[in-house]
Design a protein that fits this description.
With 313 residues, the chain is mostly helical. The chain has a domain of 111 residues. It contains 16 helices and no strands. It is globular, with a radius of gyration of 20 Å.
Length: 313
């Protein structure tokens, strides 16, 4: 295994101490005020520490490993979201800046002008064809939902290709799990809305772990047909959670990704521990948002605890 990122991994190990533990989350859940929660987080970070943001985490990781192209896959979903935002803003005659998500691999200052000029060569190769296809689809049909589905599926395919190219087993599993979760959610929505086969075939990506054609056929049978198919796969437990509630399935998706990250965290070299730390930061920020929203709406402690995502510290 390459040792080129050894210094970056060592730096990340030190930064893990600033992440919240399960005990910290329990304390946050038991707080009565926003000020109490802020004080708990501040005590964990240390005086003068900056607020944790994904953009800040990304910049820190890249500062230690500036040439680590393997990590770019972690931002593909943001990249394709930003592509969709720019295209829709262009069609609507609006400025896209307020709709962008960061961090991103894309040059957001150049994205909108490139699309407006149809200068797709200015875009990274993995979004280039999708940009042109989605633009043509939007201008021809004005069907934003179909264009979104096209871009989302292209994102999953791009992730799988990049993961395979990386040679990292962790990245391959990450891309596969991300695709499976997205495909199941999409198939569920399509089955509930009784979407036509042509739409479902555009919206579902497929992977080695979950066959596209089988998932499309199952979706056409409504939610009962979909659940019957999924229960016969290795994702039967996930299907049962989805049948109970989409929120429980979302938690399952986040938790299986974190379980994958836990294994990568223990590696001493390579890009995988860096990716695992980024995923850990994502989970922490999601938990903080859940706690904040639940507290504001008066949700009871037991329910908040049930919604907490796995942590790896």
């Amino acid at each position: 295994m390459s040792t080129k990122y050894a210094n970056a991994v060592a730096a990340i190990r030190a930064m893990e101490n600033s992440l919240l533990s399960r005990n910290d989350l329990d304390q946050l859940i038991n707080t009565a005020t926003k000020t109490e929660r802020e004080n708990i987080v501040a005590s964990k970070r240390g005086s003068g520490a900056e607020e944790l943001t994904l953009e800040g985490v990304w910049e820190t990781i890249r500062a230690y490993a500036p040439d680590c192209r393997e990590l770019e896959i972690l931002l593909y979903r943001n990249d394709f979201h930003n592509l969709k935002a720019a295209l829709k803003s262009m069609i609507a005659g609006k400025e896209p800046q307020g709709y962008y998500i960061r961090p991103t691999n894309l040059d957001l200052d150049a994205l909108y002008p490139a699309l407006s000029a149809k200068d797709y060569e200015q875009l990274p190769e993995y979004v280039r064809g999708t940009a042109e296809e989605a633009y043509e689809l939007l201008t021809r049909t004005l069907d934003g939902q179909l264009a979104d589905s096209l871009a989302d599926t292209a994102c999953m395919r791009a992730m799988q290709r990049a993961a395979e190219k990386s040679g990292s087993d962790f990245m391959r599993k990450y891309a596969q799990l991300t695709t499976v979760c997205a495909d199941i959610k999409t198939a569920y929505r399509c089955s509930r809305m009784k979407k036509q086969r042509s739409f479902i075939e555009t919206a579902v990506c497929g992977s080695d772990a979950l066959d596209k054609d089988s998932l499309v056929r199952a979706s056409l049978g409504g939610t009962e047909g979909l659940f019957a198919y999924l229960e016969a796969t290795s994702y039967g437990d996930a299907a049962k959670l989805l049948a109970e509630s989409p929120a429980k399935f979302e938690k399952w998706c986040d938790d299986v990704i974190m379980e994958l990250a836990e294994g990568a965290r223990m590696e001493a070299f390579g890009a995988d521990p860096l990716a695992a730390f980024f995923i850990a930061a994502e989970a922490e920020l999601k938990n903080l948002r859940i706690i904040s929203v639940c507290k504001e709406s008066g949700t009871d402690r037991e329910t908040i605890t049930e919604r907490m995502r796995k942590l790896y510290v």
